[in-house]
Design goal:
The complex is a heterodimer.
Chain A: H1 2-11, E1 18-20, E2 26-28, E3 35-40, E4 43-49, E5 58-63, E6 66-71, E7 81-84, E8 92-97, E9 108-112, E10 115-121
Antiparallel strand pairs in A: 1-2, 3-4, 4-10, 5-6, 6-8, 9-10
Chain B: H1 17-30, E1 50-54, E2 58-64, E3 73-78, E4 81-88, E5 99-102, E6 107-114, E7 125-129, E8 132-138
Antiparallel strand pairs in B: 1-2, 2-8, 3-4, 4-6, 7-8
Chain lengths: 135, 153
């Protein structure tokens, strides 16, 4: 029943961001951004859709082999009444497991028109290399 | 060849309770996607989320359109129906490497909304910022709420 309740809560477009939990804690819900990941010759490119997130609303962390992207939406600036709503109020969050071959020190990120693009370069150690044979 | 440590079959571990707990999270995640309407039909395509706000003197229509170019968005207003259409083009061709995940939609979309009151078509403005298109539609003079003073004789 708990699960069912949680599900219907999630399906409500105006569901609260913070739902009280039976153990007394709170549970913050997030929206999972849609993502594309492609491999290029020198790394991986990750694109995630986060409409409504300004540049300073992003938090990207790499920890314990996991890449976490968190996007805080800019607050809604409309003072009037809402007649129809399909967008979600929650912030965006998604966690990706990252391969050990990724050089986490050189990850770059940019956000352009609501699309976050991350470049995850491969470490030099795993790039294909020709080994010369010595006599 | 894979290098997986051999485990004695008799020592197979019991499924941990952690796994059951994570089922709930898995199910939760299914409903957390930004566009739940996306997979509702076979040819549903892309239905960007649309919000309509009623401010006293104008309507504010917001549509989530991440990753478009300003030139690729078309807005028309005809007989009180606002239509936003456009196309998201895939910039990079799948020329190299492997695709690990492909969830984003590329192609055409169209959304229409019937406005609840008359608007002044000449004064409509639109702005595109952070992947959200905001259309400001000032209400026509006759549709604006008016305060009527009651005179006591």
């Amino acid at each position: 029943m708990q699960l069912l309740k949680a599900m219907s809560q999630l399906l409500k477009p105006e569901s609260k961001e913070v739902a009280p939990q039976p153990n007394g804690g709170t549970r913050v819900s997030y929206v999972t951004p849609l993502a594309n990941i492609v491999e290029t010759s020198d790394g991986y490119v990750l694109e995630a859709e986060m409409p409504g997130v300004p540049k300073d609303g992003l938090e990207i962390t790499v920890e314990n082999g996991e890449l976490t992207i968190l996007g805080h939406r800019a607050p809604v600036d409309s003072k009037g009444t809402t007649l129809h709503r399909e967008s979600r109020a929650q912030d965006y969050r998604r966690v990706f497991e990252i391969d050990v071959s990724i050089d986490t020190a050189h990850v770059t990120a940019k956000i352009d028109n609501g699309v976050l693009t991350l470049h995850l370069p491969k470490a030099d150690a795993v790039k294909p290399r020709r080994i010369a044979v010595t006599d | 060849m894979s290098l997986i440590r051999y485990q004695f079959p008799q020592l197979q571990s019991w499924p941990s309770f952690d796994r059951l707990a994570s089922l709930r999270d898995e199910l939760d995640r299914m409903f957390d996607f930004a566009q739940p309407t996306r997979d509702s039909g076979l040819f549903s395509g892309w239905t960007p989320a649309l919000d309509v706000h009623d401010e006293k003197d104008n309507f504010l229509v917001k549509i989530e359109l991440p990753g478009l170019k300003k030139e690729d968005i078309a807005i028309t207003l005809d007989k009180g129906v606002l239509t936003v259409s456009g196309e998201r083009k895939q910039e990079r061709e799948a020329k190299e490497g492997e695709t690990f995940r492909s969830e984003r939609f590329f192609g055409r979309f169209q959304r229409s909304v019937t406005l609840p009151a008359a608007v002044d078509a000449a004064k409509v403005t639109a702005a595109y910022k952070d992947g959200i298109l905001t259309i400001d539609l000032p209400k026509a003079e006759e549709a604006k709420p008016k305060q009527i003073a009651v005179s006591v004789s």
